[in-house]
Amino acid sequence: MAATSSWQPQEEGFKEICGLLEQQISPTSDKSQIWQQLQHYSQFPDFNNYLAFILARAEGKPIEVRQAAGLLLKNNLRTTFTSMAPPSQQYIKSELLPCLGAADRHIRSTAGTIISVLVQIGGVVGWPELLQTLVKCLDSNELNHMEGSMDALSKICEDIPQVLDSDMPGLTDRPINVFLPRLLQFFQSPHASLRKLSLGSVNQFIMLMPRALYMSMDKYLQGLFILANDPAAEVRKLPILRNVIEYMLRVNKDPDDEVALEACEFWSAYCETRLPPENLREFLPHLIPVLLSNMVYSDDDESLVDAEEDGSMPDRDQDLRPRFHSSRFHGSENGEDADDDIVNIWNLRKCSAAALDILSNVYGDEILPTLMPTVQAKLSSTDDAAAWKEREAAVLALGAISEGCIKGLYPHLSEIVTFLIPLLDDKFPLIRSISCWTISRFSKFIVQGIGHQEGREQFDKEAAEELAPRLEIILQHLMFAFGKYQRRNLRIVYDAIGTLADAVGRELNEPKYLDIMMPPLIAKWQQLSNSDKDLFPLLECFTSIAQALGTGFSKFAQPVFQRCITIIQSQQLAKVDPVSSGVQYDREFVVCVLWTCSLDLLKVSQSSLRDILLQCCMDDAPDVRQSAFALLGDLARVCPIHLHPRLSEFLEVANKQLSTPKLKENLSVANNACWAIGELAMKVRQEISPVAMAVISSLVPILQHAEALLLRKHPWRAPMLFKCPTKEATLLYSSNPNRGCIEPAAPPPLQQMLTRPTLLSRFSLANWGRIRDDIEKEDAFRGLCALVNNFPAGALSSLVFMCKAIASWHEIRSEDLHNEVCQVLRGYKDMLRDGSWEQCMSALEPQEKDKLSKYLV
User: Fold this and answer.
1) How confident is the model at residue 341 (pLDDT cuts 50, 70, 90)?
2) For 307-336, what is the mean pLDDT?
3) What is the pLDDT of residue 463?
4) Claim to verify: residue 206 and residue 355 sit in the same structural domain
5) What DSSP assignment string belongs to 451-493?
6) How far is CA 417 from the centre of its chain?
7) CA 407 from centre of chain
């Protein structure tokens, strides 16, 4: 049985070895005797060739025999491969590679195991065909070949991952650079086996962290979080996260802040993806001290430099960070804690605080035993130049956990506040600053107490009641700061004045308050040129003041409004002829000014706003169109008669926003356009009928695909329905809220909407609990009642969702609407016999049933 370069097995030897292998796998055979016979055969130089041949080519033999040959070959190669003749080595390698695409999974797996052993023995430098075959199989789109290649690759990654992250003669790239993109792509494979093998392979490199993986970390983590909730248990049960968590925890302590920042991002991402909390829980005692340590100001933090600057020195242009004005989005609550952005530059300190914040919301009070001893130790530090940073970090930590750990902190809240108040006068300005922020984080609980359920609106009301008696001194201090601060910090004062106006509302409309507040603001307004971006925060401030004062702002409104018109006109000219206009076009001015134009809408008939607005509604920039349609809705509410000369054009342009191929990319534009159509329908009624059916035809597909378009990222943008309070029109109201007009006879598009439960229920009604009780919600429910009364059978399949929507009200203040809702519910109760009504009620939560009792059902 001598080996040759064109080796072929002898029939007799083949049969004898196969017979021994068949006996070996038999449960009744004499294993010791068979082992001795196999050892005898192993003395022949080409015995391993026979084993490779049986594994790869003995297709007439049982799979168990072929697999046994492979396993015996693997064991033999561990001790004999390096001493084998090169032709035999080459023969065995050549027979193994085709096995990667074998029809039987066991043959593929056994071949992969042997290949991994050979790579352990000799690496891949002398086996270039291996890498070529693995890549070819991975790219084949043939499942057996892909699985066989992935199986072999996963075993190589498990046993000797460093081999793939090495430079190799004759190769332009390290093997890991070739394989990693393919492995990450397999995270999305429809085949669970490939997802499992690829994920397991990549995870072997976590502790090695080759550059290729480091550069692909975002893509890896994104795939990892998805696979952690994989539908296949074999994928989910992989111990995938532990290695990643250990690695991230180690790197989070890296002396390079950029590296540590990348790792720190992981903790927030983990929690936001809603992965199982138990996976991270055991690491919290190690993680929390790392986060606290990283929350201490670094010596080169720019905030330290800012704090030491002379406040009387004017800011230079290069000192001012860019300020981007966001477009108006009708229906949004602006509930993000933008004021929590106490440092504009995202850094390790800020990221660590954000991670602690989200961890506190996931794990609550259970982090306090680990956190608080360190915080208390830092707070008790002395006032020397080094210790103040530790104290500042401790105060930041208290603010970060204020919401998530409030149950554990609330019994000590008075002590916390008592401790923080003196820090407002600390000699270190950054301690004064962070103490203000931390107190603000506890403000809701200071005002309302713990467990208050009425939400933000009620908190604002209660806070306003506390602020109103103190308005004079608050304004005096704000305006003192206004006179002292330079350009950069003036933005903070503008925000504070605007926030105060939003909170106290009409309480601000007193001459003594206006005399304190308005003269400095008007003086600043007159100082700024029409091309100065410092106008943006001032205009936002004016908008909040105008909304708070109502008619009390009228004596200031006309000059502000007229200047806004002038700015838009100059920007529109600059867009086509910057030389003549004397300024460079900047659409941010248009977006900001459109927001402010609603200050004095009663004077709009004397201006050119209508024509300017139509141009903005057709602008090629989505953010300009978004703000333009928001203003169009405001105009429709206050002075719709001004729009009549060009009403059909406005309606046509608004409807186009609902049927654009780029709807998904411009949802906020479509939202505002649809809302504007609804406002017009409420006021102009019959004039909207020519576009009514076109609007409905556009909205039905939106509702059909609402989950993909709206609810994935913004579930509160739930489609709604409402009715114009006339007999002539029923309105379609969508996207919190977006509307259009329909005829009362329920035309085909409306019937299609009503008869499809997925349109009316899941997307139209299921998210009502997130919408506050207001006049627009009342309008929406009038429409819902009208639609149901006109076509009750069509909405029957959505009755449970309708009841949940009705139960979302805290109180319906309109007596007419209350009666309409009662009529709808009683109508269905009378319609549903034989226990059907009771079956519907059984699908509701107990608290929902209690709320429906208000309507006598």
Assistant:
1) very low
2) 48
3) 66
4) no
5) T--SHHHHHHHHHHHHHGGGHHHHHHHHHHHHHH--HHHHHHH
6) 33
7) 27
* CATH number, domain with residue 18: 1.25.10.10
Contact in structure between 658 and 702 (CB atoms under 8 Å): yes
C-beta pairs of 224-228 under 8 Å, 24+ apart in sequence: 224/187, 224/199, 225/269, 225/270, 225/273, 225/275, 226/187, 227/187, 227/195, 227/199, 228/273, 228/275, 228/276
Q: Is residue 373 part of a domain?
A: yes
Hunting for tokens 């950054």 — which residue is that? 430
Question: pLDDT tens digits for 405-424?
Answer: 999 999 999 999 999 999 99
Lowest mean pLDDT among 251-265, 350-364, 657-671: 657-671
Extended strands (E) in 395-435: none
SS3 (DSSP) at 742: strand
Do residues 161 and 193 lie in contact, with contact meaning Cβ atoms separated by under 8 Å?
A: no
Last residue of a domain, one of 227, 251, 281: 227
Nearest to 427, CA basis, from 376, 476, 475, 392: 392
One domain for residues 182 and 269: no
The rounded distance, in Å, linking the Cα atoms of 73 and 544 is 80
- List Cα–Cα distances, 589 to 419, 436, 533, in angstroms: 44, 32, 8
pLDDT digits (tens, 9 = 90+) for 785-841: 877 777 787 778 778 888 888 888 888 888 999 999 999 999 999 888 888 899 889
Cα–Cα distance measured from residue 538 to residue 556, given in angstroms and rounded to the nearest whole number = 14
Comparing 416-420, 669-673, 735-739, the range with the smallest average pLDDT is 735-739
Closest CA to 537 of 553, 525, 529: 525
Please give the Cα distance from 537 to 490 (Å, whole number): 9
Q: In which domain, by residue range, is 846 found?
A: 750-854
- The residue written with tokens 């004039």 in the block is 687
Phi, psi of 313, deg, nearest 5? -80, 130
Kindly state the tokens that stand for 667: 């949802």
